[in-house]
Design goal:
- With about 325 residues, the chain is of the alpha+beta class.
- It has three domains: about 80 residues, no CATH class; about 100 residues, no CATH class; about 80 residues, Tetratricopeptide repeat domain (Serine Threonine Protein Phosphatase 5, Tetratricopeptide repeat, Alpha Horseshoe).
- It contains ten helices and 13 strands.
- The strands form four sheets. The chain has a five-stranded antiparallel sheet. A three-stranded antiparallel sheet has the order 1-3-4. A three-stranded antiparallel sheet has the order 2-5-6, with no helix packed on it.
- The radius of gyration is 43 Å and the shape is elongated.
């Protein structure tokens, strides 16, 4: 509610003088200004009025604003606090509106897949006008000249209903969008936006709008792919544990030749120890180095130990 009010100057702004009527030190500066306010915020001064008044004899005298004490003059802008805040708020929201428009224009100029347009169906898709005339159009693909959209099967009466549908992630449900697509030239899309047929342009952030999904996020890549085990190497380990060294050697050869670093390590061990074959240090060193080339630390350690007792080239 807008109210009129009379403001009294603050005590520390008072300026005491000797009263010309009774010569007492009770001749105070009194602020009788009136201003328009909203609740406690002064908006605009209606009348600035000051006087000096003696609290002893009642003598009073009007004061010109130019003769006010410096501190009281400095306090005069307080009557326009509400107006200043109002102008600042209008400027803030106007600038925010301009920034939003610039952002939407950038979306139109540089589209991306799944950009979401809110459209008037009767002008955008040339459907018969109904009370539920608002639809959602989503960018499927684009090139330098054309943009292809998929349009929702569902229509809405108000834009708030579209917002609610986005929050509920309805846009990713099956059959929400029609299988038919619409392809329009880019300059035509700009004209439709200027004419208000496209009345909002949104770009999903983190695959969502208003907290709901408008597109399916891609499947996340596994954080750890794990070690791919070679079947021949695993079979060779089984043979080795059963002391079937000949069969184990053949399995390790298959694994080593297929590039398995653990197959190469195990084959080197077989040649080093002469299990399933004659001892062959040169072959052992060869396969150790093959495994080391794949950053196998176990093979590096085993080769170092071997070279302590055997001449390694």
């Amino acid at each position: 509610m807008l109210l009129f009010n009379t403001s009294q100057s603050f005590p520390h702004f008072t300026h005491v003088q000797c009263c010309p009527g009774c010569n007492s030190n009770s001749y105070h500066l009194v602020n009788q200004s009136r201003f328009l306010r909203f609740t406690i915020f002064p908006i605009f001064p209606i009348k600035l009025s000051y006087k000096r008044e003696c609290y002893q004899c009642g003598h009073s005298e009007a004061i010109n604003i130019k003769t006010l004490p410096l501190l009281e003059k400095l306090s005069l802008p307080k009557y326009c606090v509400g107006l200043i805040l109002l102008l600042w708020g209008l400027l803030f929201f106007y600038q925010k509106h301009l920034n939003t428009e610039i952002l939407k224009q950038s979306y139109l100029t540089s589209p991306k897949a799944y950009d979401t347009y809110l459209v008037k169906a009767d002008k955008f898709t040339h459907e018969p006008w109904t009370l539920t005339n608002l639809k959602v159009a989503q960018v499927l693909s684009f090139d330098e000249q054309f943009i292809t959209f998929q349009v929702s099967n569902y229509s809405y009466k108000r834009s708030s209903a579209i917002t609610a549908a986005m929050r509920a992630s309805l846009l990713v449900q099956r059959d929400y969008f029609s299988s038919r697509t619409i392809t329009l030239p880019r300059n035509e899309i700009k004209r439709l936006y200027e004419d208000g047929i496209i009345f909002d342009v949104l770009r999903p952030q983190a695959y969502s709008l208003y907290g709901g999904f408008v597109m399916f996020p891609p499947k996340p890549k596994p954080l750890y792919k794990g070690l791919k085990l070679d079947e021949n190497n695993q079979q060779g380990i089984i043979y080795y544990k059963d002391k079937q060294y000949n069969e184990a050697l053949e399995s390790f050869k298959l694994a080593a030749n297929s590039g398995s670093q653990w197959g190469q390590l195990n084959l080197a061990q077989m040649y080093r120890d002469g299990q399933g074959t004659k001892k062959n240090i040169q072959q052992a060193i060869y396969w150790y180095k093959k495994a080391i080339a794949q950053d196998n630390s176990k093979a590096k350690y085993e080769l170092e130990q071997l070279c302590k007792t055997t001449q390694c080239e």
